[in-house]
Design goal:
By secondary structure, this protein is of the alpha/beta class. 19% of the residues lie in helices and 37% in strands. Strands 1, 4, 6, 7, 9, 10 and 11 form a seven-stranded mixed sheet that branches. It has a four-stranded mixed sheet with strand order 3-2-5-8, with no helix packed on it.
């Protein structure tokens, strides 16, 4: 019985470590503004619209700038796209969205904050939320 109890505690501890390593441990993204389902994020005057874009796990998300500036998008901790940092200008920057391991474990881990900057000056931090289902 003691062996079974020890094994149960070990398994529970291992699960907690895996969960902390996959979704926890980093500051969670705090949604700002109204979340909108959108496959396009428009950046104008250092503001992303929508501020939090909700996308389905297999969507392609496109960022574009409408004010003539070039911005840099940099995902904070984990990235739901292949390139964790990329430029955005009037030429659209499209990225295929995927779920990270933490997001596969729990839909609550599917918020991804990213930094937006223009000429190395930070803009307000927007985010991406992967949601269940397809469109």
């Amino acid at each position: 019985m003691t062996t079974l109890k020890s094994f149960s505690c070990l398994m529970l501890s291992g699960t907690m470590v895996v969960s902390a390593g996959c979704g926890g441990g980093k500051k969670p993204y705090v949604q700002k503004g109204t979340e909108q389902i959108s496959k396009t994020i428009v950046v104008n005057n250092c503001t992303a619209n929508p501020d939090t874009a909700a996308v389905f796990a297999t969507d392609t998300l496109t960022w574009t700038s409408t004010d003539g500036s070039t911005y840099t998008v940099t995902f904070n901790a984990t990235a739901p796209v292949a390139n964790a940092s990329f430029p955005v200008s009037s030429t659209p920057a499209s990225q295929h969205v995927h779920r990270t391991f933490g997001c596969w474990l729990n839909w609550n881990n599917c918020y991804y904050g990213y930094s937006l900057s223009r000429n190395n000056v930070p803009c307000p931090d927007p985010g991406v939320h992967i949601i269940p289902g397809t469109q």
